[in-house]
Specification:
Number of helices: 11
Structural class: alpha/beta
Order of helices and strands: EHEHEHEHEHEEHEEHEEHEHHH
Helix content: 40-55%
Shape: globular
Strand content: 15-25%
Largest sheet: 7 strands, parallel
């Protein structure tokens, strides 16, 4: 059976992979993006492309009306003066569009740590979105609580090349679940296509096992021919100034930093690991298949 599916965030790391999987399976997929030129490659696979902002209620309502399921997520707004208020506003728009359209199946991109509503940075907003989507009547909602993306290590390639070490503001010795976005996308796509969930539920996606930043950095080092590559925990103020220099608002920068520095509290380790939450792609496989490609560009 072919399913009619709307994917938000199709230009992102997870949304793009979900779109490709579903289109290759022959489903009727509608993609919404502000910058549609990034989605042209999906036209040849049969995607319907809608130019629009995912914060526009009417655009979403019209797209959801004829769909069996939809993938939703909170987009980052690096300029937001109040990150939580922005996240709250987007959630309200999603809820209005879902209610007006009558769509019955929603897969919501959340995160490990979303069981907490403060002290976890950006995840406070994803946690609130879970609670609010759970108030919807007669709509089946599945929250994908994803582990820390292995792809986040791609963001510090410049540091590794320039400085000869890897660095963020996070504790280097606290192990957390880490996952390749390809594995997250496969699980999300399966739920979107099969409509195999009822009521309100959570599916945690936790990668093969837990890693520390230091261990992951060591795996990177071996792959790039620098087995001595070390991980350095940077001072918060230094990281904040770098974010501000990149044009991030102070509040957005604070949320990003809190999310990283708080991992040592264990908020990312709340979800239970079992067969349904464990995915196959190891750090070594990710580094060989994805990281090295980006590093050698």
């Amino acid at each position: 059976m072919k399913t009619k599916i709307v994917v938000l965030g199709a230009t992102g790391t997870v949304g793009s992979k979900i779109s490709e999987i579903l289109l290759n399976q022959g489903h009727q997929v509608t993609l919404i993006a502000r910058h549609t030129e990034k989605l042209e490659k999906y036209c040849s696979l049969g995607a319907e492309i809608i130019a629009g902002d995912i914060t526009d209620v009417q655009t979403l309502t019209n797209a959801f009306k004829n769909a069996d399921s939809a993938f939703v997520l909170l987009p980052d707004n690096v300029k937001a003066e109040n990150t939580r208020a922005y996240q709250r506003q987007v959630t309200s728009i999603f809820i209005e569009a879902i209610e007006k359209s009558g769509i019955k199946y929603i897969v919501n991109m959340s995160s490990l740590g979303s069981h907490m509503h403060e002290g976890n940075g950006m995840m406070g907003g994803t946690g609130e979105q879970e609670v609010r989507l759970n108030q919807l009547q007669d709509v089946n909602v599945l929250h994908i609580r994803s582990a820390y993306f292995m792809e986040n290590f791609l963001r510090t390639i410049g540091v590794v090349k320039k400085m000869g070490f890897n660095a963020t503001a996070a504790d280097g010795d606290h192990s957390i679940p880490m996952v390749a976005t390809e594995d997250v996308a496969k699980i999300a796509a399966g739920h979107l296509a099969n409509l195999d969930f009822e009521g309100k539920s959570v599916h945690a996606v936790m990668g093969p096992r837990d890693y520390t930043y230091r261990e992951f950095t060591s795996i990177i080092g071996k792959a790039i021919g620098n087995p001595e590559l070390t991980y350095v925990q940077l001072p918060v103020e230094q990281v904040k100034q770098a974010f501000l220099g990149n044009g991030f608002s102070e509040d957005f920068a604070n949320n990003l930093i809190e999310m990283g520095t708080a991992i040592k509290t264990g908020f990312m380790n709340y979800q239970k690991r079992d067969d349904s939450t464990t995915t196959p792609t190891t750090a070594e496989a990710f580094v060989d298949g994805v990281y090295l490609l980006a590093y050698n560009k």
